[in-house]
């Protein structure tokens, strides 16, 4: 089901600005524009952090000719435009420059593992061909802007390990091609927008180690049938684990530890997941008995459920753990909170 866009005034403004920026920039740029944008980017770096970049202006002709051989820069073989900018782990310091928005043929932008500060500049919304945006492990602040959901080609969005705050915009649900969304280890808060659970191509969702609160959407897995990695641990989520989690049949990892989840574990959880390797439910407020279907997990490697109010019997005779140390971990913790029967 396609995500429903809530057309508030802010969304109208973002959309209109996005359209105008895109058409103006895309119709007037060439490789020389890309070169100028990159040089402007370098000039805004703080201190000597730019010394690792071999970008230099020279004369205009040489600059345009050499730009595709600059460190971290890749160009399209036919269009001769910058399509890939990879400056990951180079120790660069400064704010993200708005000139990046002039690289309108950019498909991949990776500046993870640096010291970039400030907010995400509005000009990034011009990058309508962008498929990968990776800004992990920086010092970015402020809120994730609504225009992020209007990057229609975006497949991978990684903003983990920053200092982003505020709520996640509902418009994120419009990025229908998104396959990986990683926003863990920030300071984000509020409810997780239900529009996320309409991203039908989503394979990996990591919102762990934030301050998200509220209940999980009741339809949860219905709109994300391809999900394999679901990480929502270390938040303030409440309510029950949605009963339709069994619709996420391709799940390999579920991490819901350290929240305020209550209610019981869905009874058919174990019988549904043929690929599940990891499930973490520790440090919640879960009650009731362990489902008998737990014994049907053939691929399980890691399972935690301590610090809940779970009771019941479980046989692990049919469980086939791939790692002996995980078996030990399982036995040690389960022995403290439930009775084990070995048959």
Continuous helix count: 5
Helix content: 10-25%
- Distance between the terminal alpha carbons, to the nearest Å? 46 Å
Structural class label:
alpha/beta
Mean pLDDT: 84
Along the chain, the helix and strand elements come as: HHHEEEEEEEEEEEEEEEEEHEEEEEHE
Q: Strand percentage, roughly?
A: 15-25%
Apparent shape? elongated
Would you report the number of β strands?
Answer: 23
What value does the Rg take, in angstroms? 23 Å
Sheet with most strands: 11 strands, mixed
Strand arrangement, major sheet: 1-2-4-6-8-10-12-14-16-18-20
Low-confidence stretches: 1-12, 15-28, 317-343
Q: In words, what does this structure look like?
A:
It is a single chain. A hairpin with a 6-residue loop joins strand 1 and strand 2 (82-86). The chain is 17% helix and 24% strand. It has 343 residues and is α/β, with parallel strands linked by helices. The chain is elongated and about 75 Å long. The strands form three sheets. Strands 1-2-4-6-8-10-12-14-16-18-20 form an eleven-stranded mixed beta sheet. A ten-stranded parallel beta sheet has the order 3-5-7-9-11-13-15-17-19-21, with no helix packed on it. The two termini are 46 Å apart. The longest helix has 20 residues, at 9-28.
Features:
343 residues; disordered N terminus; ten-stranded parallel beta sheet; disordered C terminus; eleven-stranded mixed beta sheet; elongated; alpha/beta; 5 helices
């Amino acid at each position: 089901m396609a995500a429903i866009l809530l057309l508030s005034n802010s969304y109208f403004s973002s959309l209109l600005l996005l359209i105008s920026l895109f058409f103006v920039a895309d119709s007037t740029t060439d490789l020389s524009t890309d070169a100028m944008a990159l040089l402007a980017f370098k000039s805004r770096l703080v201190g000597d952090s730019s010394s690792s970049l071999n970008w230099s202006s020279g004369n205009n002709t040489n600059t345009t000719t050499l730009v595709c051989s600059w460190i971290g820069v890749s160009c399209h073989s036919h269009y001769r435009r910058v399509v890939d900018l990879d400056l990951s782990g180079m120790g660069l310091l400064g704010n993200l420059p708005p000139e990046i928005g002039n690289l309108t043929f950019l498909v991949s932008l990776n500046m993870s593992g640096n010291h970039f500060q400030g907010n995400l500049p509005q000009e990034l919304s011009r990058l309508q061909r962008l498929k990968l945006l990776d800004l992990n492990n920086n010092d970015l602040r402020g809120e994730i802007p609504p225009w992020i959901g209007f990057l229609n080609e975006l497949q991978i969005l990684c903003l983990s390990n920053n200092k982003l705050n505020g709520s996640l915009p509902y418009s994120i649900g419009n990025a229908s091609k998104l396959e990986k969304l990683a926003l863990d280890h920030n300071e984000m808060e509020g409810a997780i927008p239900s529009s996320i659970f309409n991203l039908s191509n989503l394979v990996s969702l990591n919102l762990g180690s934030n301050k998200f609160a509220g209940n999980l959407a009741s339809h949860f897995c219905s709109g994300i049938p391809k999900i394999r990695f679901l990480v929502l641990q270390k938040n303030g989520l409440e309510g029950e684990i949605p009963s339709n989690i069994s619709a996420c049949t391709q799940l390999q990892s579920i991490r819901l530890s350290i929240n305020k989840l209550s209610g019981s574990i869905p009874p058919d959880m174990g019988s549904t997941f043929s690929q599940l390797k990891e499930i973490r439910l520790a440090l919640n407020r879960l009650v009731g008995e362990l489902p008998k279907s737990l014994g049907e997990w053939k691929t399980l490697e890691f399972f935690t459920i301590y610090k809940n109010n779970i009771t019941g019997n479980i046989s692990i005779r049919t469980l086939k753990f791939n790692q002996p140390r995980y078996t030990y971990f399982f036995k040690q913790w389960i022995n403290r909170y439930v009775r084990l029967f070995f048959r």
